[in-house]
Design brief:
Pfam families: DUF4389. It is built from three helices and no strands. It has about 100 residues and is mostly helical. The protein is elongated.
Amino acid sequence: MEKMSPSKETMQQLRQPSKWLRIFYMVLFAIAYSIAEIILTIIIIIQVILNLLTGTINERLRQFSSELSLYVYDTLRFLTYNTEDKPFPLSDWKKVEKTSR
């Protein structure tokens, strides 16, 4: 039985530092995404409780969750190879203009 060895092209790809650096960033941003997901879940729970008890929502939390949602979107785009632009903190935090609901 013949042993399968990696081709020269595959070996060249594996030796590229840029590939390994991107994977390193992907691991870091996957962790950041998981943390952001937990924070968004907590905000959702707080907003639901506030709405049930007071009939209103916290505007600061709404604004922050809107910006955090953009961060999650940017992170997922990077993780799925849809962009090479790295999310915050390696780029600017995207602000959302205050809007009335």
